[in-house]
Amino acid sequence: MRPSHLLLAVLVAAVWGVNFTVVEIGLDHFPPLLFSALRFLAAALPAVFLVGPPKVAWTWTVAVGLVLGVAKFGLVFVGMDAGMPAGLSSLVLQIQAVFTAVIAAAVLRERPSRVQVLGMLVAVAGIGVAAVDEGTSGPLGAFLMVVGAAAAWGVSNVLTRKASPPDALNFMVWVSTVPVLPLLALSLLTEGPAADLAALRSLDWQGAGTILFVAWVSTVFGFGAWGLLLRRHPASTVAPFSLLVPVFGMSSAALFLGEPVTPLRWCAAALLVGGVALTTLTRAGRGRTPDRLAARSPHGTRKVITGARPQPEAGRPPRPGRRIRRVTSAPPGRPGLEGSLTPRP
After folding, report:
1. Mean pLDDT of the chain
2. Of the residues 59, 96, 182, 315, which has the maximum number of CB atoms within 10 A of its CB?
3. Strand 324-326 to strand 302-306: parallel, antiparallel, or no bridges (unpaired)?
């Protein structure tokens, strides 16, 4: 990764970490569900007119929008409004990596390796330590809401993987259009029209600034830059930078909000970040064997071909450094022939 991309990855992690502090400030101006709805409204407009039409089916866009926008961010904002500290929220949400791995194993049949299972157990131990710390210093219910948000994030990760959007920024902008109306409806039902109108009437520069930061900087810039990095580099190279998010989150919350960082919280951070690192930075225990390769036929169908190393023709010794390729495909209506594709030493 070249230096400019390295700095961009760190900047995105810093933006996402500081975002929790900005959300905490914004919750002083808006009810949580209204704040979340305004965030997605600002992220969708006017960007939706600039990124072009959606590049995946609306089924996936709506599903991710409801799970990520309504469930995940709704629970985060409500939990933080109920007393969950911003720094601890940035840390606890990282358990989404464990939820993602478990759901992917159940739905996508992605079998985790032993190291990944160990990482999940370590991360869960970190959540247990964080729960003990929060249970003695804050509302446990708010803590559980953020854990539920991490579970919703894991579901949305699997849905996004199934959707396979070719453009992360385009996908995120269109996803942002989905939760606006459901969140507004929930806000009117649970927070009340009077509270929503009072918040909008008293809107000042600080409240507007929190909306713009969370929408344009954290959502549009953050996900757009992250998608750019994922297109230029392997996921295994980009993913570790997300482990910096709770570092920036806890540091900014301590610096700007005066949140204390207790010894138990440091212990939880070490266990959780270490467990997530083991879970996300190791590959699943499934690989491609050399004698089982895939080839695409001229008719667009994909064939899996197997076979032993082909022998050279009589009287013609093999030439070093060349590959023997013998993949055949019959036209429609005629049987095909099996071939093999194996490198020669």
Report:
1. 82
2. 96
3. unpaired
The helix-helix angle for 73-81 and 140-163 (nearest 10°) equals 160
The H or E element spanning position 41 is helix 32-44
Q: Cα–Cα–Cα angle for 177, 179, 184, nearest 5°?
A: 115
Which residue type is seen at 89?
A: S
Q: Are 85 and 265 in contact (CB under 8 A)?
A: no
CA atoms of 98 and 279, how far apart (whole Å): 7
CA distances to 187, 195, 211 from 182, rounded to whole Å, are 9, 17, 18
Length of the chain in terms of residues written = 345
- Return the amino acid letter for 9: A
Residue 275 is encoded by which pair of tokens? 């467990």
114-137 vs 140-163: helix axis angle to the nearest 10? 150
Q: Output phi, psi for 314, to 5 deg.
A: -60, 135
pLDDT given for residue 135 in this prediction: 65
Question: What is the per-residue pLDDT for 155?
Answer: 93
H or E stretch covering 303: strand 302-306
Amino acid symbol at 47: A
